[in-house]
Amino acid sequence: MDVNATPDRFAVVIDDESIILAGMEIMLDTWGYRVLAAEDVETVLAKLPGHPVPDVILSDYRLRDGWSGITAVRAVREACGADIPAIILTGDTGAELMAAAKAEQVRILHKPVQPNDLRRQIEALIAPA
Q1: Has this prediction a pTM greater than 0.85?
Q2: 49 exposed, middle or buried (CB, 10 Å; 0-12, 13-18, 19+)?
Q3: Which residues form the Response regulatory domain (predicted)?
Q4: Pairing of strands 56-60, 33-38
Q5: Total number of domains in the chain
Q6: What secondary structure, in 3-state letters, does 46-112 show?
Q7: Is residue 1 part of a domain?
Q8: What are the beta bridge partners of residue 36?
Q9: Residue 4 is assigned to a structural domain of this protein
Q10: Segment 48-94, tens digit of pLDDT
């Protein structure tokens, strides 16, 4: 991406594994996104004020301090006062997760996710209706 370009999309990424978080941040940046990335929900919520409403939330399912991707998405949506499109990346295939994701209107992608597949999923979620 051109370093002088002004990305017009904003993504929030939550993953408690720092190497995955860094990789996601770099990948989204190359796709033209401004990124707020953090290893925990509290950090995201503390840094959100002053940012625009995110275009998309990407979260791992299993987070630290008792948070899940579902509760993280809910917290970010509530903080922003908006129904932000969200994707949870997980290896979990349990019925409880699927039911919660459906109830919260969150898309589930099972790991490993190829970058091009993730990009297509994000673009489909945030494309204008």
Answers
A1: yes
A2: exposed
A3: 10-126
A4: unpaired
A5: 1
A6: HHCCCCCCCCEEEEECECCCCCEHHHHHHHHHHHHCCCCCEEEEECCCCHHHHHHHHHHCCEEEECC
A7: no
A8: 12
A9: no
A10: 999 999 999 999 999 999 999 999 999 999 999 999 999 999 999 88
